[in-house]
Amino acid sequence: MGQFGGIGLPFFGCAILLVGNIFLVLGFATPYWVSDDRITTTSRGLWRERRCLSSGGCYVFDIVKDYGMYLSAVRGLLCLAIIFMATPLVVLPIYMYLAGSDFFRRTMSTAALLSLLAAVCIFVAVIIYASCISDQSTYLNWSFYMVVVSGAMATFCFIVFLVTALTVKPVSGQLITNAIYADNIRKKNYLSEDVDN
User: I want to staple 176 with a disulfide (CB 3.0 to 4.6 A). Which of 42, 50, 64, 180 is the partner?
Assistant: First the structure.
């Protein structure tokens, strides 16, 4: 990552965080957290339940049954995790372009903190959900595991951003890509130049 002057590692972290956030949203929205194959195929997510009859028809409907407060806790924690994971994706590339290397360590530290908070929210939600599944005939399905993988990706991004904050300092004025400089052109103040009439 030397050719990017320290900026390549955060962009790599952002790419991993983007994939993790996609996994989190897919797992969060799909009705395949837990399945039961006893009489009919039944799958349940955080928001919807799906039942397929032995005759071949499948029905998807909203969860109206009260499964307990754990479902609301898992929903809330995963909503926070989505926010924590999306914030560095939006702020980090824009801020690195506008501020350059001025606040590089603070920006990386904030991205590391938000990634850590997202990972903690995801893993606490996963532990709550897995511990509250009481029926022995049910098993965890692919939506649950997508959320677990997104938590692992958020943890990996925490490590990437933390290592970047502690060790990497971009070279001032080095060309990063065609549009991004470690210190951008904001130091040129065209309005303060003296103009003789």
Answer: 180
CATH number of the domain encompassing residue 99: 1.20.140.150
In this structure, is residue 153 part of a structural domain? yes
- DSSP helix/strand/coil, 43: strand
For the entire predicted model, the pTM comes to 0.76
* 154: amino acid identity, one letter: A
Q: Is residue 62 part of a domain?
A: no
Place of tokens 């606040």: 103
Closest listed residue to residue 17, CA positions, set 164, 142, 129, 126: 164
**pLDDT per residue as tens digits for the range 157-168:** 999 989 888 886
Token output for 78: 């995963």
Render the burial of 48-70: b for 16+ CB within 10 Å, e for the rest. ebbbeeeeeeeeeeeeeeeeeee
Q: Is residue 125 included in any domain, yes or no? A: yes
Grade residue 120 by pLDDT with cuts at 50, 70 and 90: very high
Identify whether the C-beta of residue 51 lies closer than 8 Å to the C-beta of residue 41: yes
CA nearest neighbour of 43 among 145, 141, 149, 147: 141
* Structural domains in the chain (count): 1
Q: In what order do the strands lie in the sheet with 138-140?
A: 58-62, 48-52, 41-44, 34-36, 138-140
Closest CA to 126 of 67, 81, 60, 66: 81
- Let me know if residue 48 belongs to a domain: no
Q: What is the domain extent for residue 112?
A: 2-31+67-185
